[in-house]
Amino acid sequence: MDTFLQVLAFGVLRAGLYALTSVGLALAVGVVGIVNFAHGEFLMLGAFLGYWLFVLYHVDPLVALPASAVALGGLGAVTYHVAIRRVLQAAPLNQTLLTFGLSIALQNLAVVLWTGDNRAAPIPYAHLSVALGSVRVGLPQAVVSALAALLTVALYLVLDRTRTGKAMQAVAQDRLGASLVGIEVDDAYRLAFALSAGLAGMAGTLLVMQFAVSPYMGLSFTLRSFAILVVAGLGNVRGVLPASVVLGLAEAFVEYYLPGGTGWSEAVFFVLIFAVLVARPQGLFR
Amino acid sequence: MGSRFRPYAWAVAVVAVALSQVGAQPPTLRIGAIVPLTGPAGVSGQFMQKAYELALEEVNRTGVLGRRVELIVENDRGDPPTGAAAYVKLVTRDQVVAVIGGLQSSVSIAVAAQARQRPVLMAWTGAAAVVVEQALADADWFFHYHPWQYHNADSTYRFIRSTGARTIFLAYEDGPFGSSAVDEARAFARQYGLEIVAAEAFKTGSPDLTPLLTKARGSAADVFLFVGFDHDVIPMATQARQLGYSPKMILGSPPSWPVGFEKLPAGNYITGMALWVPSIRHPASQRFVRAYRERFREEPSSYWAPLAYTNLITVAQAIQRARSTELGALVQAMRQTEYDGPIGMRLTFKRSLYGRNQGFTRLMAFQWQNGRQVAVWPEELAEAKLAYPAPWGR
Amino acid sequence: MRDRRLWLDVALGGLFVAGAFGFGVWAEEANPYRLAQARTVLLYAVLALSWDLLARTGQLSLAHAAFHGLGAYTSVLVVRATGLEPALGVVLGGLASAAVAIPLGWVTLRLHGIYFAIATLAFSEVLRIAANQIAWAGGATGLVTVPLFGGRTVLQYLFLLGVLAALMALSRALQASRWAYAFAAVRTNEAVARALGVPVVGCKVAAFAVSAFFAGLSGATYAHAFLFINPLESFHLGISVAALVAPIFGGLYSTAGPVLGAVLLRGGEDLLRERLGAGYPLLYGLILAAAILFLPRGLVGACQGWSLRRPLARPAGRAARRAVAEGTEEA
Q1: I need a surface site. Which of A159, A220, B176, B293 has the fewest CB within 10 A?
Q2: C174: how many CB neighbours lie within 10 A of its CB?
């Protein structure tokens, strides 16, 4: 029973990480309708920001979060203005390729600036954990999960309760209709894209507590985020949390309870996605 | 008549002058290197490129066969077609006398396929997979510096045996790098009286290794052997501490360690296998580290640096010994190599399981102790004693 | 007039193939380096044009890595087991990919756009993980194989050129036939297409199978040219991406576009790498992004746009009809 609870906890913590890294992408897809391949690179830049702030100025990643949100949010707004805005009407393929080119460029800009090294930030509390009864919970993972929940709920609140949020939802549903009732479509898109990049940046900064920082770290998170979005239903920002929980728990249980399971957990992940798409293309949570 | 031939006369004069220039200054001796400078293996490749620069300066202080050596470095980007084309370029266009470098297995095989068509001396640093060795079993122009996978395994289990440990939990990344460590692992372990109680694969880049580590803790093995990449050792080390997982030894063998790992509290007392670490007690190694630091203002923190240095120096020496650039003579001269270089082990070329010319055959072990890689095995390179069982958290 | 356009394309295509043939024969002795590079360019061109065939039915596939890998694995395993001539193994590789594509196409029929893309991506990844676990297929370490045509680069090059020429002819013939309208209808509006009597299921599955056949052929040739396969590299996501980047860059839904894109991108990447050193991928990424911003219909689209602006050269009706046939998506 103890082990079961422990594995359950592993799954939930992992779900927190997944939700944190994909909610921004869900927003970009849901509101702007852009499948942003450079999402992982925004995350990577957020991670480097957190890394350098910690290594050079001893700023804790948690303290660096607002800086990261502002910096990456700004970069997102600029990216929207310079590039994304011009392909809103274009074929989805062209949008994909644009963000893909952007992703290559950002990745290699990071290589030129900071080399391709993997870097570790020596966060003094990274290896600590809290015991809840018989269950041990890693401190950084707990922080990540709590913040994932907080940011996601905050995002829901913004979308539902504020004028701007409602404008974003209106634009997402019907661009033309929204513009007819006087919503500044362009502003709503820009804000949504900036918010998306800012969320990716914050996620990246938090990852510094647990993982190696390198220019190549983004891609695996981008791919996983796509998968989570599919399970949630593309564009369904609200589905991200439950989808992350499903994937996190499924993986953790396969990895622990199946002999040799860690090698197969990835297959489970992709088979699940394939099955969901074929059986319920609208996603599990819609 | 005269005016009609004047242009030709000019041309002849120009050619004559050019030829006399050639006579006055012997043409350079060209060596080609194929390394990945970009892509995920680019970090190791850049270490190699810098070490080649260092070695080249040294070689050109005296020259080879009275000529200056010119090194042409080609970036294979870790892509087999690019590596294969680079070989063709070096051999046909640049007319190099030898091709050095090399890192990944797939690129090595693609390059060797071209080398079969147009053989020159191939003094190769990379690839540890035995399939590469088998594929080149008959090639006497192929000299291989890096230990093969079974050499790595042999050193690893010999070292574990020397600590007194008996049981091992093996965790490996499921790509070609990690999986090669599982082949015949049980047989090797048995040979040294060790038992692998379980072997589990994981996906490299996985952010969460806690289920794997919990399994390992349940197995109660003496040693947790972790074959993953540099970015995998960070979650492994921190999550092991979070779970309070305290085997007698955690042994990792990533191709390199992340920058800043030395400052990671969870990294203390983790043990590693490597071809070389900068701290070994060996004069040639210490000279190399000093020269590298001075020249590039950074640490040569990857073994690919001294390996590449050794690579170019020994090829240059062999050319000098051969007194010729003819392939047969070069092969003979390479076989006479006896080099006590920065790696800290003498380099000679002998037959291996399948191959004809194998260089290094042994790894060394080190332990992270208070922010330093401390060589602990074999004894002749050891700087301090291995802390065993590891005093985790103390 | 349509005939004249067809003949112009055939003439241009023929000129390209003849030029490439001449280059191959010349370069074997004179410039083997560029020949080795050109062989890789042809591999990419086959991959890119075969991807475009499928894209014409509106399917954004990321399964090309799967077909590339399947072709490679089939051929290598068959050649190992039976000692078959690699040239025949390559054909078998293509057929195996096509055979897998038919049921896959069937299952994923209902999916569109990014959903289809992610389903095919998941399919590729599942194949990779499965290949990783199968010991007799070399497991994660991979397998070494024997060379095609005894490893003679020029013969491999000419073989690939033949494959590409056949694919170009097929692609051009499709565009000249009623199938072009059927594909365009399926792409732009499936319900309408069905109502018009277009066999939607047949179109999609057939395009998938033909596309997979050539991708498998390309993968198997790759395997017997570079002699090593493993799950990580043979099913690499980068292959799928390369297959779609070239058509988008060169011009979608055309014969010339994907080929031109492959030649310029792969050849250009080599040139950038030779000239710029380690920083070149930065510029490469920027060029890709800029191409989308400034040439949204690819190079071929930009050229057509330029020639369409010359009033004497093109009667307006033709342009309109072509726009329908190509289903240009900017509305």
Answers
A1: B293
A2: 18
Which chain A residues are within 8 Å of B208, Cβ to Cβ? 10, 13-14, 17, 141, 252
Identify the residue whose tokens are 């995002």: A155
How many domains would you assign to chain C?
Answer: 1
Per-residue confidence band for B74, with pLDDT thresholds at 50, 70 and 90: very high
Regarding an ipTM greater than 0.90, the answer is no
Query: First CA to last CA across chain A, in angstroms?
Result: 33
pLDDT in tens, C34-83: 999 999 999 999 999 999 999 888 888 889 999 999 999 999 999 999 98
> Cβ atoms within 10 A of the Cβ of A91, count?
19
Q: What is the mean pLDDT of residues C86-90?
A: 94
Establish if C251 belongs to a structural domain.
Answer: no
Could you tell me if B174 lies within 8 Å of chain C, comparing CB atoms?
yes
| C309: pLDDT strictly greater than 70 | no
Domains present along chain B, CATH in parentheses: 29-147+282-347 (3.40.50.2300), 150-274+364-381 (3.40.50.2300)
- The residue among C118, C190, C253 with the most chain A CBs within 10 A of its CB, best to mutate, is C118
User: Regarding predicted confidence, which is higher, A246 or B145?
Assistant: B145
Across the interface, do C151 and B113 touch by the CB < 8 Å criterion? Answer: yes
Helices A163-173 and A139-161 cross at an angle (nearest 10°) of: 80
